[in-house]
Amino acid sequence: MRAVRKHTDCRWVLLYIERWLKVPVQLEDGSLIHREKGTPQGGVISPLLANLFLHYAFDKWMQRYFPQIPFERYADDGICHCRSKAQAEGLRAAIEQRFAECGLEIHRQKTKIIYCKDDRRRKDYPEQKFDFLGYTFRPRGAKDPEGKYFVGFNPAVSNEAAKSMRETMRQWCLHRQTDKSLDELAHMINPVVRGWMNYYGNFYKSALYPTFQHLNHILCRWATRKYKRLRGHNRRALHWLQRVVKRQPELFAHWGLPQFKAGQ
User: Fold this and answer.
1) DSSP state at residue 32
2) Is 156 strand, coil or helix?
3) How far apart, in whole angstroms, are the C-alpha atoms of residue 223 and residue 241?
4) For residues 254 and 212, what is the distance between their CA atoms, to the nearest angstrom?
5) Residue of higher predicted confidence among 84 and 258
6) Does an H or E element contain 138, and which?
7) Kindly report the CA angle at 207 between 252 and 191, in degrees rounded to 5?
8) Long-range contacts of range 42-48, CB-CB < 8 Å, 24 or more positions apart?
9) Which of 125, 172, 211, 245 could potentially form a cystine with 263 if both were Cys, beta carbons 3.0 to 4.6 Å apart?
10) In this structure, are strands 71-74 and 77-80 parallel, antiparallel, or unpaired?
11) Degrees (nearest 5) of the Cα angle 42, 130, 86?
12) Model pTM score
């Protein structure tokens, strides 16, 4: 009975997935677009289906046929760690064939062989960086525990992620909220800013400085609208903000970074 019940449940799941895949997309004007394949961009079901499908089409396949090659995958983005260019080219060809068998295609422009250049790997190849999960991995200067400098292949916040954060800051329209106090602004945005810091600040915190410096400029703009004595005086507003940072260094979450602790 349990086997029959399990089989019946699987059939219902497959029927629901089929309906999700075939349901038309409704545009803002009310018109419908009937789809023949794939899921709509940004659809809530897309990452779920990608994980379910690729778990068997890719993860299990890699573990079975290429157990010597480590890999990571998140939704439909993945990284495979090969030891040579020849191994990477062979794996890419095998993945293309595997995906074709499963009715999938790899993204030609996004699927690249990257040379992870550092102090140990000093050859030159056209592609030496890639983005993954909001980070850009590329050769960067670093310092070991003994204080010696070297070049490592390390991650830091990507340009796209930084651009997305600045776009979110613009959507806050802080410079227009002159009815609020500085404490109220901090209470409003600190949870989001702290989340950015916790995620992107694990590697190369200094890469976040330009983005949070942009946030400080927005706060200066808010001050020129809030206080008459600062109106039209951007430099005076900057000096005012620096004094606030020194007086209340924990008011805004990003002021805890070394770049801003001294009121810079």
Assistant:
1) E
2) strand
3) 8
4) 7
5) 84
6) strand 135-143
7) 30
8) 45/20, 47/75
9) 245
10) antiparallel
11) 115
12) 0.79
